[in-house]
UniProtKB/TrEMBL annotation:
It comes from the Eukaryota. Keywords: Membrane, Transmembrane, Transmembrane helix. The lineage of its organism: Eukaryota, Sar, Alveolata, Ciliophora, Intramacronucleata. The chain crosses the membrane at residues 397-416, 463-484, 515-538, 550-570, 599-620, 673-691, 711-730, 736-762. This is Transmembrane protein, putative.
Amino acid sequence: MIIQNSKFYLNTCKQQNGGAIYIQNKILMGILHIDSSQFIDNKAFLSSGGAIYLQNNNLIIQNSEILSNIAQIGGGIYYTQILPDFLIDLQNGNSNNNTFMHNIGHIYGQNFGSTLRKVYIDLENIELPSGSQKSQQNGDIQIHKFKSGDQINFKKIQLIDEEDNPIKFDNINSANFNLLSLDVQALLQQISISIAWDQENEQIQCIGQLQTKQYQNGGYSLDVQVFYKPLANIILKIESNILPQIKDSQGNIAVNSGQIELNIKIELDQCSIGEIFVQYGNSIACQQCPEGKYSLSLNDKECKECPDSAASCKGSNIQLKRGYWRENENTDNILYCSLNPLPCQPQLSTSKFNCDEGYKGPLCQSCDTYGKIWGESYAQMFNPNFCYKCSQNKIKIITFNLLIFILISSYVLFILKRIILQLEIKIVGYYLNKLDMIYLGSTLNQSDRSQIISKILTDHLQILSFVCTFTVNIPISFTLPIQLPGNTFTMTSKSIDCVFSKYQNLQPLWLFQSLWSFSLPLGISCLYLLIGIICKFFKVNIFIKYFRTAALFIYFYFFPMVINLASRSINCITIGDKKYLDLDLSIECFDASNHKPYIFFYSLPLIIIWGILIPVYLFYKVYIIKQKKQSIFMTIKYSFFFEGYKDKYYYWEFWMLFYKTNLILVSELLKQNLQVKVSIMNLVLLLYFYLLVKSKPFTIQYFNNLQQKSIILCIFSLNLCFISIVGVQNNLTYELILIILLIFANLFFIFILLIGLSRLLIPTKKEDRNFIQNVIFQITKRYPQILDVQLQNKQKIKSLLKLRRVKLRIKQLIKYLKGYDFYSSQSLQQFFNIKKTQNISELHKTQEITQILSSEVSDEKNIFVKNNNTLQKLRNQWSYYTRNTNSNQTSLKTSNQNLHAINYEKDDYIMETQNSLQNSKNITRNIQFQIQLSENQN
């Protein structure tokens, strides 16, 4: 058939194929020649071939136009069985001057329609398990890191026509589908998509939706769960239904009959953590642990139950509860943050490595000083269990460090001042006795009172700071005042970490924190020295003169803190399967670069020098002084160690160092074994209590009693802390009661020590007391062991010292102490003319002074007597206190014993007396001289 110079325009075929021309040859192939013709706006609304429909027919077309034709399949031309020659020419680039434009095939085939050519799916429409990867290579789909038992979802699988356009139509069950021609319906009903694999391999199994005819949402959808074995390869195929064969006009096969397909090449990976191997028929599958179970090892044969410390589990994911920590996601060694559970916040979406903002490291106990995790620097300040953001707390950091220095300096300097003044009193009293001016007896020994009580207070605070270190629920309002004087280094060592954070080359951080702690004792020493230099400028040498004593006191005060710091620098904390440095839990123990070298260059030398050599040297000096009876000046300078103790227990202060060192070592080295730690600490405390009760090292029993109460209270506090952690941890009511008992007991004892330190004075006569003084007097009278107060008579011993000749001798002594060599016994003898060759003349002078004093008493009696009985009593007292010391040693010893008995055992208390000895106008500070006299009130 030949068509030339023709025009087919606006032809329509509603139910049949071919809007303009329909040609069908059943036996032999037909040939249609078209030349110089036009096919425009022809329509086959419900069928195929908008302009031309060809069945078993070849088409040769030249110089023609096929424009704007419409059909369901093949908007321009639809053909079957024979591939027309003009298409072969067109595929080879020869259009034969033909034009094919604006033709529409609603289902597929815009210009030309025939058999579908291939299967296609976009990579974005392939859904794989997390961790698997996909790619496309040489027309095939590649899937990597896929596991046996995993599922693949194929969405929008497309069948492509010869013009590379995808098929599209409504679901075959829709109403519009039934309107199509029977040929089109039959064609579409035959289209199907399925999954195929090597059926000969029995180990390969696929389950799921493996075949479909439903065209929905722009394509076909399949899902398949693949079972084979780990570390193997498998090829799946997405296939269509069987499509007819097409030949060219020469009888050659142009399109094979059969299925069009798309290869899916899968590389099976090893099972992941969180999955276990499961036998599935002949296959081996990787099965993920379900909700409530987990697995963290490839060797696990079954999933483990979710632990109590976790809120939920699935696969390899373990969601921890608040207050718990683990080193990483690959371990189920879950630890409770016993040191401080507050920073452990794994349940928060904002947490990192199971830690709250600002925290890091094992158990979240370290602050992110260098900002490597949180991007900003954090450091500890007031509360050792809380990390503060450096950028928001610059003023607080400065204030905190200044406040610590001021408070500790004030505390230490206050005690030093009282100690030094007492030492001055002893020297003055010593020479008053030597000059036979007035006998002071045991009154000088009582001047050690504040020194001894300050020791007991300091020891109690230091021991208390170690016995309750494992309790985190105690309010900071109580622990801070205890830690401040008791273990200041725990607060100062990390107080300027925000400064260190700007210099990341300062490594390891724990070493510089430790070195910074020594700035406190050095700063206090320098401050004392500065005060001494200033006072010396004003002609007051008292502080410079006792600098050695001050240095020794500062050493003893900070001794346990340094030992604690040094022991922690070599101590290791076991957390999980690793050991970490106690001072910095972010550093592994004995780390080759950040720990081990500094043990030999810092920690051990510090322990040997500070903890062994210096105490041994000081003990030797004290031993020499006590054995060889050194001069009063050398004795006074070292009297800090043995004053208040009996002569045979002069070493007791060194025993206290050993005792506190043992407590520190037990507290630090056994901090992870709580029960053993508490047991051994109880034994050490009880042993010391036994030795204290048996030895009674203090000369005055009242101080022995105070020390015993301190030990009992420390034992009580230790066990209360232990019970609050172990016994009533989950009972907030009982825990609160225990904490209140702990706080109240210690505060009451500290109050008693402060009262004793200040030496509260109450008038002897009732009419001279106020209401508060009366209350304290009644409490003291009923319970004399609770509060230590002193009754004060208005009649002072200073009235007796108004004697002109006595005052003259005292002024001479002060003048000597001011202007002459304080340490030269020879110059003292020269000044007072008491050389051995002048003993006889001095004896006459002493007798003369005694006579003068007796006359002065009678001349000035109107100054301090009110009646004849009182006058007689004062005269008797004066003769007692001015008697010759060499001739009355027996009576003096008896008097001393009576004095102690009166001071601490009778309900009638002593009459305190004071005398202030002033220097010249150039001296700006007073040398305070206290004299206590005892009187048995009838």
